[in-house]
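Q: What residues go here?
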């Protein structure tokens, strides 16, 4: 049976939503509920329609009406079934490392290996003659790299979101640390690809430094994301990563970026 995936972003205008539906149905231009119903009922192919709805906490009446038409036609026509999925939508990155306006559900981005935006935030401090970075240990609940040592905080940039805003949000959500955007220092972009049997995670990360004072005893860790945190001297970390087998998903390139930015 043919599976048709349709992306219904709550941030999209009615014209864009019906264009998405018409394109995926192969029905040409659709501008309203009646045309959509006609296109669905006239199709003689056995299909599964997977409707992906973005997860913003807002109401989009066009999205609701499109879902209602699919449900109505499903009941009156035995040739297709309808599944709905709520997911975070991510804007994709083009081949020139530019953010596009095209968004796609996160689960499918990870399935298909699409290049997408993320943020990495490193908390650093000077102590004696060394530069220390705060590492987090990823929760065992994580689908990607569970129980591995990682960047201080990191996360995806949702559709319509700006990199710096996403970085501020991730610090608050993962570590309970509230900072302003102007306290974050952008030191560059880094591309990273991680794959396993279930995921092809192709990220373009904006890498930030935060040099403010941090009391780890006062951090509030989000248990579903982070199991523990701790400071480590960067040169010692580099040595351990090169000479010992420790579970980590830390980029040597990003550590080099930190050293270059600090010294």
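A:
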């Amino acid at each position: 049976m043919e599976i048709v995936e349709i992306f219904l972003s709550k941030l999209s205008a009615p014209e864009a939503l019906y264009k998405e539906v018409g394109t995926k149905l192969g029905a040409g231009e659709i501008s309203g509920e009646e045309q959509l119903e006609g296109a669905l009922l006239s199709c003689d192919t056995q299909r599964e329609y997977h409707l992906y709805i973005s997860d913003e906490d807002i109401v989009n009446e066009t999205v609701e009406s499109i879902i209602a038409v699919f449900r109505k036609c499903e009941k009156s026509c035995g040739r297709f079934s309808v599944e709905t999925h709520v997911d975070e939508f991510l804007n994709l990155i083009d081949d020139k490392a530019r953010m596009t306006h095209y968004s796609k559900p996160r689960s499918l981005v990870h399935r298909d290996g699409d290049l997408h935006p993320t943020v990495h935030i490193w908390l650093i401090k000077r102590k004696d003659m060394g530069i220390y970075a705060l590492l987090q240990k990823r929760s065992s609940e994580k689908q990607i790299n569970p129980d591995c040592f990682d960047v201080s905080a990191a996360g995806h940039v949702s559709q319509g979101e700006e990199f710096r805003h996403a970085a501020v949000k991730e610090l608050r959500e993962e570590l309970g640390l509230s900072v302003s955007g102007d306290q974050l220092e952008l030191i560059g972009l880094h591309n990273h690809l991680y794959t396993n049997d279930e995921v092809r995670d192709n990220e373009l990360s904006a890498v930030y430094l935060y040099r403010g004072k941090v009391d780890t005893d006062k951090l509030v860790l989000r248990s579903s994301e982070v199991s523990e945190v701790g400071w480590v001297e960067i040169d010692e970390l580099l040595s351990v990563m090169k000479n010992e087998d420790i579970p980590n998903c830390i980029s040597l390139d990003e550590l080099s970026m930190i050293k270059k930015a600090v010294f």
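A: Context that may help when evaluating the design: The chain has a mean pLDDT of 93. The first strand starts at residue 2 and ends at 8.
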